[in-house]
Design brief:
One of its GO terms (biological process) is FMN biosynthetic process. It catalyses: FMN + ATP + H(+) = FAD + diphosphate; riboflavin + ATP = FMN + ADP + H(+). InterPro entries: FAD_synthase (IPR015864), Riboflavin_kinase (IPR023468), Riboflavin_kinase_bac (IPR002606), Riboflavin_kinase_bac/euk (IPR015865), Riboflavin_kinase_dom_sf (IPR023465), Rossmann-like_a/b/a_fold (IPR014729). The protein is α/β, with parallel strands linked by helices. It folds into 2 domains: about 1-150, Rossmann fold; about 190-315, Elongation Factor Tu (Ef-tu), domain 3 (Beta Barrel), CATH 2.40.30. The chain has 10 helices and 12 strands. It has helices at about 30-45, 60, 75-85, 95-100, 105-110, 135-145, 170-175, 180-190, 205-210, 295-315, and strands at about 1-5, 15-20, 50-55, 90-95, 115-120, 150, 190-200, 215, 225-235, 240-245, 260-265, 275-285. The two termini are about 35 Å apart. The relative contact order is 0.12.
């Protein structure tokens, strides 16, 4: 998959293409429907499929300080889009100047002049241009002028986790923030992932016999609510079953919120300085302070046992 940052990166000889535009944070099942349809139509038409997205998130530029928690960094989104068959990803730097482009200017500069759109595929609530004034109806009118079609993909609705709400990144962020990683998994179509570099912590897990990877998460990451979770620790292509702790260490009156993963049944791991990923499969329990270290050790052993059972049940 080709990756471009800015309109100037698009090859001068780029031909017609099928395009879809959006933040696509998380590349959840609703996004997958839209992107998958764009890829399908691109194959039918014999042209490339292009996804257009933005960095930083538009809300941070329009309303500074309002950057939403991110469900996936751009490199992860690119991986997921490539798996869906996308041929090119265009990341547009979202600046104050760019935010002032009218819908008509956006169509002309991006879709027509640079990407030579033959077809644009979007969801029913797609908005674009200055103050999000551009609608699917306006895009369709522009298509008649500039010789491209517009196809709207109806999004399915989620099940019990979202209470029947449409698939959305906003809903997924809410579920993650509440610790409902099972509900988030239902919308994403996979476990929610947190990434970062392993840094040195207080070493208490090692002293207790349960050494953890203390993950320094990427900026604006959507981190689940405080608690213990079952999941996986991904290191250099290997997925290790893990018991994961999120929050401040109540037992030792710590104040810094951390994400720590204990790789179940693995010994002698040296992960410091490595970029790792943590997938959250299921909630195990909330955070607690115990009467003694012995009681804490019993709880941790039970967390590991429960996590192992949940992972085996999911994989089996």
């Amino acid at each position: 998959m080709q990756r471009w940052r800015g309109l100037e990166d698009i090859p001068q000889d780029w031909g017609r293409s099928v395009v879809t535009i959006g933040s696509y944070d998380g590349v959840h099942r609703g996004h997958q429907l839209i992107i998958g349809r764009a890829v399908e139509r691109a194959r039918e038409l014999g042209v490339p499929a292009v996804v257009v997205t933005f960095d930083p998130h538009p809300s941070e530029v329009v309303r500074p300080g309002s950057h939403p928690p991110l469900l996936a960094p751009h490199h992860r989104r690119a991986e997921l889009m490539a798996e869906l068959g996308v041929d090119a990803l265009l990341i547009l730097p979202f600046t104050a100047e760019f935010s002032k482009l009218s819908p008509a200017e956006f169509v002309a500069k991006v879709l027509v002049d640079k990407l030579h759109a033959r077809l644009v595929v979007e969801g029913p609530n797609f908005r674009f241009g200055h103050k999000a004034a551009g609608t699917v109806a306006f895009l369709t009118e522009q298509g008649a002028t500039y010789d491209f079609e517009v196809e709207v993909v109806d999004l399915y609705v989620s099940g019990s986790a979202g209470g029947g709400e449409p698939f959305s990144s906003t809903l997924t962020r809410r579920l993650v923030a509440e610790g409902d990683v099972e509900g988030a998994r239902e919308i994403l179509g996979r476990p929610h992932r947190v990434e970062g570099v392993v840094v040195r912590g207080a070493q208490r897990g090692r002293e207790l016999g349960f050494p953890t990877a203390n993950v320094e998460t990427l900026p604006h990451t959507a981190i689940p609510a405080d608690g213990v979770y079952a999941g996986w620790l991904h290191v250099e292509g290997e997925a290790m079953p893990a018991a994961i702790s999120v929050g401040t260490n109540l037992q030792f009156d710590a104040t810094e919120r951390t994400v720590e993963a204990y790789a179940i049944d693995r010994v002698g791991l040296d992960l410091y300085g490595l970029h790792v990923a943590v997938d959250f499969l299921a909630y195990v329990r909330g955070m607690a302070k115990f009467d003694s270290i012995d009681a804490l050790l019993v709880a941790i052993a039970d967390d590991v046992k429960r996590s192992r059972e949940l992972i085996e049940a999911y994989e089996g």
